[in-house]
């Protein structure tokens, strides 16, 4: 169907100054991404210079039918890897016509936390490891798995190569390049322990941009799986039994932690996180209890533990951080379906602002 | 078949001055688009300088066999996104050899209304939201729907992303760029509430050009679905039951409405439209009674009601218009298979010329 591709790939820069902006937002479930496009008279790269827009909130469970307008505020701009040229992706958050964030708008509160002077001074960095599972369309069984059956047990698949060990690499590799093209700070990818499961990492990102970048990376991934005819799942335990779940381990550091002697700041921060374990877990993703069992490289959901190089702990401190006496740590508790605005801001709030 | 594409994509500008002009017209049903092409000696950008042409009206239900010539008058020129180079699309309307518009020529009357001095001075702007459904060829079942069954209920599909939520995006994106290339004032696109249904918007366009641009956009869409092997439907209620219909909401404003205090002009205009509700409905598309039920974001066909941000009304005024006390309003009554020449001119006639 290459005539269709000729049209999809038309480079309009020769024909017009106009550009297409795809406005992206999060729907009523907190995980469903939505987007629609509009024409702008010419290229804009500053989100504050982009027009606000609106959408039908009654169709996304975010407003009643007789008062359905929800307003979109542009927050971050990326290059559009699908339309290319001067076309853009715009990450937005949602407000009532009166200017209040709607209940599902988690970015608003995160932005408040990240603009608190004490948080700004600490320059919080995040590296998020987003795991996900690819499912065959219609049957919703993982990609590469035989219908009505199972592949061989876990072992050969982690970072594996070969037609019998790696399923869906074309999606993963196109996602990697598309994200780099878009301007997302994607730092790596790897095949995961469960066959059909993959991971990409975004970071290091400062403050609110960690959430923006992860959401746009998720959007790009869902657009790519749409093209590939494969279903994307962020379920934290897609297949029960002796199969790994999917998480969104969140690596974190502040200026103090990155400086000499930072290991003491890290230990204090981990203590505070331990005191608020239940509060964090409640915000770390739906269905996480199916994943955090204490097996399959997780810590039990009711236990808070930390350790150096311990993948069975809630929080893991890397050996290089331990050796250097400074660095970062990894919160392994968030599920793959967590909201990065919530998780990143909560970690900052607990470790920097909260007093026990 | 890459040899065929090489030929289709030949750039003739290096070999010859000649160009190909595709003359487009509307056939006897009022919705069937027809076109044929001719060679011209050199590039033309002014429709007045294009030659009139003719076609066999007895093959389109527009003339008897023994007197079958129908004359085509070129009215608007666009760049041809399929042949590219200097080739053009030409929107035409149809006349008898005697020079009279044939009965199915709705443009002629619209052009008269739009050249009335009162209408000209009010500079009527239109933004038309064209909804449409993509159907699988042969089965005529919506794209992405399982044969012999139904997808999950409406909810996830509006502006949705992903292989299980969005069906046919390649067609929609190819159409967006092709229209921009052609010079059609396409202002945006979005996935609709019913899976397999989409919408594009054309505008703001002034007066008669709204109709010309929408018909050309429809033509380009039908050419693209032809390439994709998918059937295009403008039926206003393609699937009975708990599935949204397809409309062509028409946004409208005049100079007075856009000026300070315009909200009062808007309210007067809406009152006049209310007094002529039945006449408008009769001209707003065949089969609209299957769509305008009062459910699925429509107002009942027998009721005329307007409201701010109310998607269940016949006419909706946006919150930003209410706040600024000037702007535009949206007539939500027209069906997807309406004739934009008829609808745009009728709205102008009722609100500007008609005296109750």
UniProtKB/TrEMBL annotation, chain A:
EC number: 6.3.1.2
Domain GS catalytic residue range list: 106-356
UniProt record similarity statement: Belongs to the glutamine synthetase family.
Keyword terms: ATP-binding, Ligase, Nucleotide-binding
Protein's GO biological process: glutamine biosynthetic process
Protein's organism: Durio zibethinus (Durian)
Pfam family, one: Gln-synt_C
Tagged with keyword Zinc-finger: no
Catalytic activity: L-glutamate + NH4(+) + ATP = L-glutamine + ADP + phosphate + H(+)
Domain GS beta-grasp: residue ranges: 19-99
Gene Ontology CC entries for this record: cytoplasm
UniProt cross-references to PROSITE patterns, sorted A to Z: GLNA_1, GLNA_ATP, GS_BETA_GRASP, GS_CATALYTIC
Protein name (database record): Glutamine synthetase
UniProt entry tagged with the keyword Cell inner membrane: no
Single GO molecular function: ATP binding
From TrEMBL, chain B:
GO terms of biological process kind: glutamine biosynthetic process
GO cellular component, one term: cytoplasm
Molecular-function annotations in GO: ATP binding; glutamine synthetase activity
UniProt keyword terms in alphabetical order: ATP-binding, Ligase, Nucleotide-binding
InterPro entries cross-referenced by the UniProt entry: Gln_synt_N (IPR008147), Gln_synt_N_sf (IPR036651), Gln_synth/guanido_kin_cat_dom (IPR014746), Gln_synth_cat_dom (IPR008146), Gln_synth_gly_rich_site (IPR027303), Gln_synth_N_conserv_site (IPR027302), Glutamine_Synthetase (IPR050292)
Catalyzed reactions per annotation: L-glutamate + NH4(+) + ATP = L-glutamine + ADP + phosphate + H(+)
Enzyme Commission no: 6.3.1.2
Bilayer-spanning residue ranges: none
SUPFAM superfamilies linked to this entry: Glutamine synthetase, N-terminal domain (SSF54368), Glutamine synthetase/guanido kinase (SSF55931)
UniProt-listed Pfam families: Gln-synt_C
PANTHER family in the record: GLUTAMINE SYNTHETASE
Entry protein name: Glutamine synthetase
